[in-house]
Backbone:
């Protein structure tokens, strides 16, 4: 478990010159847990992953979502009790002992799980690699090599991952029966970001998280997306007026109809190179 060490609110305040100093100084892992074997779990990379990264920040600043990976003692995989795949703080409610900084939501994947998600083209993990302010990076050269490794194999099946995200959000929050709920600007933005992201990766073989940048690149215009962002900024759960909703529905329908993705290529070489990269990280 993460040490319950003081993380002052000022350490995470938006707009400060060095908002991650608190994480750099204090985010360390418990090396003295019962049954521990000395090396503990070493956090290697942590990055801020929240709505400003996507291009639609909350007016209030929103939660601070920190994602990254750590390295457990690799010999523990030979034991009956292997290391946990991930460690979370404040993701499903406030973790006991962290009430004073409930706005910090942290997920750290053990290296093996992190590599598995990279291999599966998980867009959230890829955005951790390519985007977002750095909270902690003990292996900057290794992260540079990882970005180059992934880019040399894109698009992989990343477009399908983004498209799956768009479909899930559409079915869950917009769907065919609008009487169940009143879709918000935020939900439309998640669907549109997924649809645009799918096409962007397929065409550019690169990763981009910002929905306005995606709209400019794919559609040549970010006007409608900007209206949705402005609506969300005015109120976190802002619903849409009839005109904006009609236009947003039309864009979503057009994107679902016109998104044409290539068949994913084989990933054998990608898997082999990820394994090599993970061996280097675990040995570092």
Residues:
């Amino acid at each position: 478990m993460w040490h319950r060490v003081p993380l002052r609110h000022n350490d995470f305040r938006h707009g400060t010159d060095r908002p991650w100093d608190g994480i750099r100084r204090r985010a360390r892992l418990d090396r003295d847990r019962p049954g521990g074997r000395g090396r503990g779990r070493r956090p290697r990379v942590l990055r801020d992953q929240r709505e400003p990264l996507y291009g639609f920040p909350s007016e209030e600043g929103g939660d601070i979502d920190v994602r990254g990976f750590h390295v457990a003692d690799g010999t523990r995989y030979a034991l009956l009790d292997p290391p946990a795949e991930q460690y979370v703080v404040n993701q499903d409610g406030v973790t006991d002992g962290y009430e004073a900084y409930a706005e910090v939501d942290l997920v750290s994947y053990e290296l093996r799980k992190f590599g598995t998600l990279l291999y599966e083209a998980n867009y959230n993990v890829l955005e951790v690699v390519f985007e977002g302010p750095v909270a902690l990076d003990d292996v900057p050269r290794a992260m540079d090599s990882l970005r180059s490794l992934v880019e040399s194999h894109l698009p992989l099946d990343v477009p399908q991952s983004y498209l799956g995200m768009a479909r899930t959000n559409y079915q869950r929050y917009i769907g065919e029966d609008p009487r169940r709920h009143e879709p918000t600007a935020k939900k439309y933005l998640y669907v549109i970001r997924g649809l645009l992201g799918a096409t962007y990766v397929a065409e550019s073989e690169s990763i981009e998280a910002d929905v306005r940048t995606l709209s400019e690149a794919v559609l040549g215009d970010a006007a409608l997306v900007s209206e949705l962002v402005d609506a969300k900024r005015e109120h976190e759960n802002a619903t849409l007026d009839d005109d904006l909703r009609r236009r947003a529905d039309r864009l979503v329908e057009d994107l679902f109809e016109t998104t044409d993705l290539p068949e994913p290529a084989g990933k054998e070489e990608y898997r082999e190179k990820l394994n090599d990269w993970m061996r280097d990280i675990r040995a570092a």
